[in-house]
């Protein structure tokens, strides 16, 4: 149960912070958008999706289906991030955050559906 709480809080924090920075188009996020070839508007939409994922993950222990859908959505966003990094020819340093977050989301989903049974 403690693992579930830790993963839920960690993922909600990570994706709410990243999503808010993207949705507000903070200067660092504008730079990232330009580096990856996204418009600022597209980066804002990704930020909104990250915030939605964070909310869904946070509600997951109470509503497992919602948490599962949110986790799946975040995994899709992270897969997209990995594809962007690979297409850009980025090294492991740039790919590692998306990979670590994907592992955390996968662990969250495993714990969520094991715990909710």
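^ structure tokens above, recovered residues below v
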């Amino acid at each position: 149960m403690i693992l579930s709480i830790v993963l839920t809080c960690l993922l909600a924090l990570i994706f709410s912070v990243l999503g808010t920075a993207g949705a507000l188009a903070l200067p660092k996020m504008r730079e990232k958008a330009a580096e990856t070839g996204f418009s600022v508007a597209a980066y804002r939409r990704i930020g909104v999706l990250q915030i939605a994922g964070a909310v869904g993950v946070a509600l997951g222990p109470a509503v497992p289906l919602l948490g599962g859908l949110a986790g799946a959505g975040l995994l899709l966003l992270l897969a997209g991030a990995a594809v962007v990094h690979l297409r850009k020819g980025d090294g492991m340093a740039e790919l590692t955050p998306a990979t670590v977050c994907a592992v955390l989301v996968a662990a969250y989903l495993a714990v969520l559906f094991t715990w909710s049974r």
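The chain has five helices and no strands.
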